[in-house]
Write a structure and sequence with these properties.
The complex is a heterodimer of chains A (309) and B (102). Chain A has 309 residues and is mainly alpha-helical. Chain A is 59% helix and 0% strand. Chain A has a domain of 170 residues: NADH-ubiquinone/plastoquinone oxidoreductase chain 6, subunit NuoJ (Four Helix Bundle (Hemerythrin (Met), subunit A), Up-down Bundle). The N terminus of chain A is likely disordered. The chains are: A mainly alpha (309), B mainly alpha (102).
């Protein structure tokens, strides 16, 4: 199967030498442009036109980066399909990531995160990690994101009516981000340094040893097809203790989550005493009043840990 | 020889990590903050898989399995905490808990 796959036996292209791909000045300019765009795009008091301009700036920076990288990879282009898929998946993934960060509504942030997960799974398939791609989709898009959407659904807050017309149905903490300038400066400084190290200091990366694919096709051992079976063999022959610890950790986390979720928050006053239209704010269960502590098997209805109603 | 260098994948991972970091620092909604941590996990996972492919062994993929385990445990615990915090103050604003800043 793998031998019939044209790109399967190929190794990565050689690492670029210093300054060959992206000059440090280009990285700096790109990060500044993208930072300004991100500041404008983050939820704030700015008018929608400014947000559109920020989005345009970010797209502009992305296009410049794409053009620079394409110019570099043009002369080593042998397999067009792989390259095209890489650019498509990267563009979708990074677009989804930007929208996760900048969208005002948490539900849409979660849905754009699903988009990013699928794009990452596509990248994993390109990197011959089919099992990890499937696991990513199942665990992230299937399990974790469903949990997020449930929590978003459970934790809906009433909106103050004096919000601006553009985002009337949203709360203040969704509409206004905290310190967008400082955070963008730090984040894009980190991104610039990382890109600089990746592209200009690549000599330190050790050269790859003989590929497992080459060894697999050359060896006379029983032919194991696909990377999934090989990954399983690797995991259960080299990483047994880690696997057991991972299972133990998941069990502990599950027990902890159940204990956290079972804790009941007592309301400060019985619901019958409050008028129907006033909101009863929940009280903290850990104040100094001993009567607010939940008690098992009590007859006092305000003190019951798990009321029957 | 093929098409893409290792650096292309590393760059995508690094950019995704930085975007997640920015989101974690700027957004005030607790749920979106945890979504941004998941975004950072994604960037790291892409890096690990790319290195696994580059070196031709399975250590990177095994690492990603454990990263997924950690992410699942973190999501379950963190979301339980978020629900608990929401029930106490009736808001998802992270600034509502600023007295914990110390």
């Amino acid at each position: 199967m793998l031998a019939s796959h044209p790109s399967a036996l190929a190794v990565f292209a050689p690492l670029a030498q210093t300054g060959e791909v992206l000059a440090p000045a280009a990285i700096l300019v790109l990060c500044v442009i993208a930072g300004v765009g991100t500041i404008m795009l983050l939820p704030s008091h700015l008018k929608p036109n400014w947000r559109k301009l920020g989005g345009a700036l970010l797209a502009f920076a992305g296009l410049i980066l794409l053009a620079l990288l394409l110019r570099y990879s043009a002369n080593l282009n042998r397999n067009v399909a792989h390259t095209v898929y890489f650019w498509i998946f990267s563009a979708i993934g990074l677009f989804g990531a930007i929208r996760v960060v900048t969208h005002r509504q948490p539900v849409y942030s979660a849905l754009y995160f699903v988009l990013t997960v699928f794009a990452s799974a596509g990248l994993f398939v390109l990197l011959l990690a089919e099992f990890m791609a499937a696991a990513l989709v199942i665990i992230y898009a299937g399990a974790i994101l469903v949990t997020y959407v449930f929590v978003i659904m459970l934790a809906v807050q009433a909106v103050t009516p004096d919000s601006t017309s553009a985002a009337r149905h949203l709360t203040d903490y969704d509409n206004h981000s905290r310190d967008p300038f400082i955070a963008s400066a730090i984040g894009f400084a980190l991104m610039g340094v990382l890109l600089f190290v990746i592209f200009d200091r690549a000599e330190g990366v050790p050269k790859p040893q003989t590929s497992w694919l080459a060894a697999m096709t050359a060896s006379k051992a029983p032919q194991v097809e696909g990377t999934t079976q090989n990954l399983g063999i690797y995991l259960f022959s080299n990483q047994q203790i880690s696997l057991e610890l991972a299972g133990l950790l998941l069990t502990i986390a599950m027990v902890g989550a159940i204990i956290i979720a079972r804790r009941r928050v007592l309301r400060s006053e019985p619901a019958s005493a409050a008028p129907a239209e006033t909101v009863v704010f929940p009280a903290t269960p850990v104040d100094d009043n001993p009567h607010s502590i939940p008690v098992y098997g009590t007859e006092n209805p305000a003190q019951k840990a798990y009321p029957e109603t | 020889m093929t098409e893409l260098a290792l650096q292309h994948y590393l760059a995508v991972g690094a950019i995704m990590f930085a975007i997640g970091l920015i989101g974690f620092m700027t957004r005030r909604n607790l749920i979106v903050m945890f979504l941004c941590t998941e975004l950072m996990f994604q960037g790291v996972a892409i890096n690990l898989i790319a290195f696994a492919r580059y070196h031709g062994n399975f250590a990177g993929q095994a690492f990603v399995i454990f990263v997924l385990v950690i992410a699942a445990a973190e999501a379950s615990l963190a979301l339980g905490l978020v629900v608990l915090l929401f029930r106490q103050k009736n808001t998802l604003d992270a600034d509502a808990w600023r007295e914990m800043r110390g």
